[in-house]
Design a protein that fits this description.
Chain A: Belongs to the metallo-beta-lactamase superfamily. RNA-metabolizing metallo-beta-lactamase-like family. INTS9 subfamily. Chain A: Pfam families: Beta-Casp, Lactamase_B_6. Chain A: It is found in: Cytoplasm; Nucleus. Chain A: It comes from Cyprinus carpio carpio. The complex is a heterodimer of chains A (618) and B (606). Chain A has 618 residues and is α/β, with parallel strands linked by helices. Helices cover 26% and strands 22% of the residues of chain A. In chain A, strand 11 and strand 12 form a beta hairpin. The longest helix of chain A is centred in the N-terminal third of the chain and has 20 residues. The relative contact order of chain A is 0.12. Chain B has 606 residues and is of the alpha/beta class. The radius of gyration of chain B is 37 Å and the shape is elongated. The two termini of chain B are 56 Å apart. In chain B, helix 3 crosses helix 5 and helix 4 packs antiparallel against helix 5. Classes of the chains: A alpha/beta (618), B alpha/beta (606). At the A-B interface, helix 8, strand 25, helix 15, strand 27 and strand 28 of A face helix 1, helix 4, helix 8, strand 23 and helix 14 of B.
Chain lengths: 618, 606
């Protein structure tokens, strides 16, 4: 049993598990942080971004002025933003049988894998994961295709040239594996390979392995996976949360008795408390609005935004800001809000009980009805005529490199009345802001990451007691910025097995048993004898049948009666074709009856070894 | 092994004490692997007395049901499947889990309350469950998701499949060990305008319990029925008549509303369409929130246009019934046995221009059933009679599987036995014959209160040591040879409830037993005018030519070894040509050994 690690990113994992002749990919995360090296894609022509000077090395030897632009004191690639893919060379990806998706953030690289590697398998995901994942992919594609870039920059990736570039570009890794965004066709084709599963559904893979998704409490439809045979159990824990937000709570007890637990997707901000961040978010928002400024919240179109809207729904009235409009701008804003209301089965208890009334589970339905929350597919069209200030705008993409957010940065960046509040933890906010500097607008960093923190995870591991833990390398040491914080790492006995990009781990497993079925006729024919108290033994002679990784023992078929013919003699002249091993003999020989028996057969002269053998073993 | 055997060859019993050869009240008790499960807990709409609830004294004469039942499963929200639930749990007494899907859990209490109001508040009956009892009963409900495997206890697991029929309808698979049963509830194998088709995987249950409401019918295509329906409604409206469509608030109503809504839109019709009950809006809201349970098309387009927001269909007010001019009214309940639909029917029945369309099955005893049977004079309460002059049309829109659908489901699930319930005896008989012929499986159709036992033949799961299995699979080759089956030998160790199959060597080692060596020896006399050594050489050559596939060694110390068989040659000084061949083999090589002794007795080739 082996684990191939195709991504080193702890929260955007992509691992391949080889287990009992099946090859299972666990998640398919796409690292979008590579986009930070690129110039923002403005939706509306931006004089500032279109007049940037090209980059030429100091000695003038390297001239990449078409590809690289200097902006706010940094060098950026002027091209369609690219993303860092999971490693494709470590193993033949066409051999992957199934892909298990744990949540919609961890499936964004799916089209790259299913469409360009010869993949012929099945992808398993829950319905909310599929539907919201599709929205996020479509959004990404729309962001890119709305502002087409004629050129693709590749020269700078040349090793010799990259070496000469200024920081952070110089240190970017794996640049040759970066790819630009996929197309809608690729998204549709990739998602057509998804098979829907429900929590606690047992899915058989080739009769050899059973996989089961369990609620992980992180987002709508998010799951951890159990991969098990009759004797071995691997738990894959990815992006789990113990906080009470909107999703169904995390299912923990089914993770018990794991031989190996693969742990990914812990919180990226272990020092921030999500509740505290939410409070800070609200107070900063209120402060800005009261001062007459606008609030920009760069965010994904699904996930924490539902909680933010719910929190603001309660907060705004109490803060006397009930008339402030909220705008949610995304090509998939409407779909995201609508979809969130129809997945009652996947929500926490108290949201679930609302649909029984029947009422929509999320209060944003009411915000929309009362016109407090408006959603638009983009800044073009109705939005431009309807929008009032001061207001709160939720829009993507959180990298600030593409999407409608770029326009708001250009529009509001110059005024110190306005505030940008970062809530998504995936990007360093300083890097995200780099091409917009100098900036007058206030920046507030309130990352809300509801995933497990180190304290919660160590308590969880104590409860479920896995024999071995596998995790990304960063979890085995304190964060580089806080080397003294030994509480911000995993300390386990035995120590966790750490992996990084391109690691191949042999998992400590010894398979010793396999499940086999005795047909009822065979079971009935067995003659067990008690060897010692509580232990019985029976000799089994049977025919093995293996089909689809299922093994069955049948009774030995009776030899077809040989027709009484002249040829019969010839039959005995053939040596026995197969050597059927006979059972070993053991146990006590009843001496008296044995001797008596010998005595008897001596007189009849025809001492057939067969008979004596049988009597001997009885 | 005896105890093991009896446990393994378990059997189970299905007792239907509500749903036998009768449509109207579903309640089945299944005993499987020592677990008792109640499937549905329905009420008979045709009765107004004790007979409307299942006879729970069948389970126990006195006391509560909790200790007799491991769980109760409700397939869908129709009252003939869940109507007796509060009676059972609160009045007879049951505190265990009740499983149903989310939509059923949402809608079921509303229908129960609605029904309670009609029975108690309007008809003034006593000895009926109260609102509080409905609430208390619903607290015992555990929601079930599709395809989720729910572990009721350590041995009993259940899994729900999509059944079509109505919003949230489910089929359930019940499994204990290797025995399993599937209960369909009501299901529909053809997708309609708002729901998808039932689906189940090839789970090969020991028993499939299927409804058989439409056991003999093979309905013409849905499209034809729809066209027919629209034509009749249109004609009546054109000639200024009124159309009454008695429906249940949820289910068919929504499908027919979608149908009429699109027709009205297309034909630009102006006659008003009303929906009679206050439940409608609420009902449509449920459909919007549980859109994942509707069909593919509605789910795909719901963001742009929600099919359950109707433009032409408005709420009905009691006074509208006397309005002149044409109209179409959907009114509850569906069988004309009470409530608003019966009120409107009474008002409109005297005019031959009007029409009543019965879109579903009507239970015996209801007004719906009577007029469908052509009765023209109805006795009403207070000895009044009602002349039925309006046109009566029957259109099977109720989403049950027809004979074709039932056969289709059998093909999907591949059960080993079949049990038909919820149908009429004669029709079921016909279907039973058909099933037995086509699938050669036994098919049962118990009457109410009758118990059916089905013997299962489960195989025994055992842990086999991987070494033994791998060795066997390597020896056996990749494909089994049907003509030459390989016999494998192993030792089954039974200890602390575990069954392990290991190689005999390992078993001996593990149990600390010593192996007995059993060797057979045999002397064969033979005339051969050569030296002992040459004779041995000749034996060696002979065996080499006969036993081509065996390893044969000629050891310099004067022995020939074939597998474990040792062959020596001696002779006495007196008769050097009379050779005595000594053969010795172990018990494990018995076959080969006796073959060799026979072979050598025949002498050596010259």
């Amino acid at each position: 049993m082996k684990l191939y690690c195709l991504s080193g990113h702890p929260t955007l994992p992509c691992n391949v598990l080889k287990f009992k002749s099946t090859t299972i990919m666990l998640d398919c995360g796409l690292d979008t942080t590579a986009a930070l090296y690129f110039l923002p894609l403005p939706l509306v022509h931006s004089p500032r971004l279109s007049k940037l000077p090209g980059w030429v090395s100091k000695d003038g030897a390297v001239n990449l002025e078409k590809e690289l632009k200097e902006c706010s004191g940094r060098v950026f690639v002027d091209s369609q933003p690219e993303f860092c893919l999971p490693e494709k060379e470590l193993l033949d990806l066409s051999t992957i049988d199934v892909i298990l998706i744990s949540n919609y953030h961890c499936m964004m690289a799916l089209p790259y894998i299913t469409e360009h590697t010869g993949f012929t398998g099945t992808v398993y995901a829950t319905e909310p994961t599929l539907q919201i994942g599709r929205l996020l992919m479509e959004e990404l594609v729309t962001f890119m295709e709305r502002v087409p870039k004629a050129q693709a920059a590749t020269c700078w990736k040349n090793k010799e040239i990259q070496r000469l570039l200024p920081g952070p570009l110089k240190d970017a890794v794996d640049v040759w594996s970066w790819r630009k965004c996929y197309s809608v066709q690729e998204v549709n084709s990739a998602l057509s390979k998804v098979q829907l599963v429900g929590y606690s559904q047992k899915v058989e893979l080739f009769g050899a392995v059973q996989v089961t998704p369990l609620s992980s409490g992180y987002s709508l439809g998010s799951s951890n996976w159990i991969i098990q045979s009759h004797y071995e159990k691997v738990s894959y824990v990815s992006g789990s949360s113990l906080l009470t937000t909107h999703p169904q709570p995390m299912e923990q007890s089914s993770l018990k008795n794991s031989d190996v637990l693969i742990l990914t997707g812990l919180t990226q901000i272990p020092t921030a408390n999500p509740d505290g961040m939410l409070g800070e978010f609200c107070s900063n928002l209120a402060m800005t609005i009261r001062a007459g400024g606008n609030v920009l919240v760069p965010c994904y179109s699904s996930g924490v935004i539902y909680d933010l809207l719910e929190c603001l729904y309660q907060f705004m009235d109490s803060a006397n800001l009930g008339s402030t409009p909220f705008y949610f701008i995304s090509p998939v804003a409407n779909s995201s809000l609508e979809f969130s209301q129809i997945f009652a089965e996947w929500l926490c208890q108290n949201k679930q009980s609302k649909v029984y009334l029947p009422e929509p589970p999320f209060p944003h339905a009411e915000l929309i009805q009362t016109n407090k929350l408006k959603h638009y597919p983009s800044i073009h069209g109705d939005f431009s005529s309807e929008f009032r200030q001061p207001c709160v705008v939720f829009t993507g993409h959180p990298s600030l490199r593409f999407g409608d957010v770029v326009h708001f940065m250009e529009l509001w960046g110059k005024s110190s009345l306005n505030t940008i509040i970062f809530t998504e933890p995936d990007f360093s906010y300083l890097d995200a802001l780099a091409p917009y500097q100098p900036l007058a607008m206030k920046c507030v960093y309130c990352p809300i990451d509801t995933r497990l923190n180190f304290h919660q995870v160590s308590k969880l591991l104590k409860d479920i007691q896995p024999l071995h833990v596998v995790c990304p390398e960063p979890y085995t040491q304190p964060p580089p910025a806080q080397p003294h914080r030994s509480d911000l790492m995993l300390e386990l006995q035995p120590p966790p097995m750490a992996y990084r990009r391109c690691s191949v781990l042999g998992l400590p497993f010894r398979r010793r048993y396999e499940r086999i079925h005795l047909l009822p006729e065979l079971a009935r024919s067995l003659v067990p004898s008690e060897i010692k108290a509580g232990v019985s033994v029976a000799t089994v002679s049977a025919v093995l049948q293996s089909k689809d990784n299922k093994h069955v023992l049948q009774p030995v078929p009776k030899p077809a009666p040989v027709p009484p013919s002249k040829k019969r003699k010839r039959v005995t002249e053939e040596p026995p074709e197969v050597l059927n091993p006979k059972p070993l003999l053991s146990g006590a020989v009843p001496l008296e009856p044995f001797l008596a028996m010998l005595h008897k057969v001596q007189h009849t002269l025809s001492l057939r070894p067969n008979q004596s053998a049988q009597s001997a073993c009885r | 092994m005896e105890s093991q055997k009896s446990a393994a060859a378990g059997f189970w019993v299905a007792a239907s004490f509500g749903a036998g050869q009768d449509v109207g009240r579903s309640c089945i008790l299944v005993s499987i692997g020592g677990k008792n499960i109640m499937l549905d807990c329905g009420m008979h709409m045709g009765y107004n007395d004790d007979r409307r609830f299942p006879d729970f004294s069948y389970i126990t004469q006195n006391g509560r049901l909790t200790e007799f039942l491991d769980c109760v499963i409700i397939s869908h929200f129709h009252l003939d499947h869940c109507g007796a639930l509060p009676y059972m749990s609160e009045m007879v007494g049951y505190d265990g889990p009740i499983y149903m899907t989310h939509p059923t859990k949402a809608i079921c209490p509303i229908l129960l309350e609605d029904f309670r109001k009609i029975t108690v508040d309007k008809k003034g009956e006593t000895n009926f469950f109260t609102s509080q009892m409905i609430k208390d009963c619903m607290k015992k409900v555990v929601p079930l998701n599709l395809h989720q495997t729910v572990q009721v206890d350590e041995e009993l697991e259940i899994k729900a499949y999509y059944a079509g029929h109505v919003l949230g309808a489910a089929m359930v698979q019940i499994k204990v060990g290797s025995e399993s049963v599937v209960y369909t509830g009501d299901y529909n194998m053809t997708p309609d305008r708002h729901l998808g088709a039932a689906w189940i995987d090839k789970c090969r249950p020991d028993l499939l319990i299927s409804e058989s409401t439409y056991a003999t019918t093979i309905r013409d295509s849905k499209r034809c029925r729809e066209r027919d329906f629209l034509k009749k409604v249109h004609e009546t409206v054109e000639r200024g008549g009124k159309v009454l469509i008695p429906v249940f608030a949820l289910g068919r109503a929504q499908e027919l509303c979608i149908l009429l809504e699109t027709f009205w839109e297309r034909m630009n019709l102006k006659a008003p369409i009303y929906f009679s009950t206050g439940l409608t809006e609420k009902a449509n809201h449920y459909y919007k929130l549980f859109i994942t349970w509707t069909n593919q098309k509605i789910r795909k387009t719901f963001v742009q246009r929600n099919m359950f927001e109707f433009k032409h269909i408005k709420a009905f007010d009691r006074s509208y019934a006397d309005n002149p001019g044409p109209m179409v009214v959907f009114a509850t309940p569906g069988m004309l046995h009470a409530g608003q639909s019966l009120l409107i029917f009474k008002k409109w029945a005297g005019n031959e221009k009007n029409m009543v369309i019965m879109p579903g099955y009507c239970v015996q005893g209801t007004v719906g059933h009577k007029i469908l049977n052509g009765q023209k004079k109805l006795e009403m309460e207070g000895r009044a009679t009602l002349d039925v002059k309006l046109q009566v049309e029957y259109m099977s829109f109720s989403a049950h599987a027809d004979a074709k659908g039932i056969m289709q489901l059998i093909r999907m699930a591949e059960p080993r036995n079949m049990l038909l319930v919820h149908g009429e005896a004669k029709k079921m008989e016909f279907l039973k014959d058909k099933i037995e012929q086509e699938f050669s499986i036994s098919c049962y159709m118990p009457a109410n209160g009758e118990t059916t036992s089905i013997v299962t033949n489960p195989s025994v799961p055992v842990d086999i040591s991987l070494n033994l299995l791998k060795r066997e699979m390597a020896l056996g080759g990749p494909l089994p040879d049907a003509k030459r089956p390989r016999t494998m030998h192993g030792t089954l160790i039974m200890k602390d409830n575990s069954l392990r199959l290991v190689s005999p060597e390992q078993a001996l080692k593990e149990l600390g037993l010593s192996e007995h060596q059993l060797r057979f020896t045999c002397r064969v006399q033979l005339h051969d005018p050569h030296s002992d050594n040459d004779t041995l050489g000749r034996i060696y050559t002979h065996l080499k030519s006969v036993l081509k596939t065996y390893s044969i060694q000629h050891v310099p110390d004067g022995t020939v070894i074939v597998e474990s068989i040792v062959i020596k040659v001696t002779s006495s000084a007196e008769e050097p040509n009379l050779k005595v061949i000594l053969l010795s083999w172990s018990y494990q090589d018995e076959e080969l050994g006796s073959f060799l002794s026979t072979l050598l007795k025949k002498g050596l080739p010259s």
